[in-house]
Amino acid sequence: MFSKIFISPHPDDECLFGAYTIQRDKPDLFVFRDRAAIWRCDETRAAMEWLELSQEKIHFIDTFNQLPNVKDVETVYAPAMQGGHQYHDEVCKRAILQYGPKVIFYATYDRYKSEPPFGRWKVDATERMKKRKIEALVYYESQRKIAAIHFNLISKDEYYF
Question: What's the predicted TM-score (pTM) here?
């Protein structure tokens, strides 16, 4: 039984958009490898260790079939449908189909990618949580080099829809 799970479309989204939820709720984390190189998974492990999520709660998956059964989950955090990334939207659709009303949607970025994430409800975070998020993002060295725009647009705030 999983009390809470957090679904991340690729290695780094869990920290970019869910660091406060992960620090607060300690959900089981399901990260799609998305053809990611092994070092991206290592970056996630290191960042999550910094956010004090136990390694036993980190699961790298390749297909939706590897997600827990609906009867085994109470709460699911999944990316909101925002049009900013095709795979984020696909994960959102599948989460709705698989988990229905158990899903809480977290903001990623919209199709314009010109603003930091926004949503209806700001996730409460302590100053320590905000500091830990910024520090954890340093572990994603491979992505900071090739996708700097995403890291530069990320504010300290996180949101739910």
Answer: 0.92
